[in-house]
Design a protein that fits this description.
By secondary structure, the protein is an alpha+beta fold. Helix content is 28%, strand content 16%. The chain is flat and about 40 Å long.
Length: 75
Amino acid sequence: IPIQQAVLADSYNETAYRLSLLSLIGDPESHGDASIVAALAKLPFTLHGGEAVIEPEHPEVATLSDARLLPHTPN
C-alpha cells in the first residue's frame, strides 16, 4: 500500500496525525493491552522505502515520502 494511499486526508493536520500513527505499527512496547494503540501496533504491516519524495496532488500537502506499507512476514 503506498503511504500516500494510507495517510493522505483532506487536511494537512489530519495527514500529519495519520503519519505520526505509522510509528506505532509493529511497536513491541505497545502490544500488551487492548487499546487502540495496541491495535495499531499489532497490524500485520511493516514500513518500507521512503528514500524518495513524491509531490501528491493535494492543496495542503506539498511533499510526502514514497514509502509503502507491506504485509509483515515473520522470520
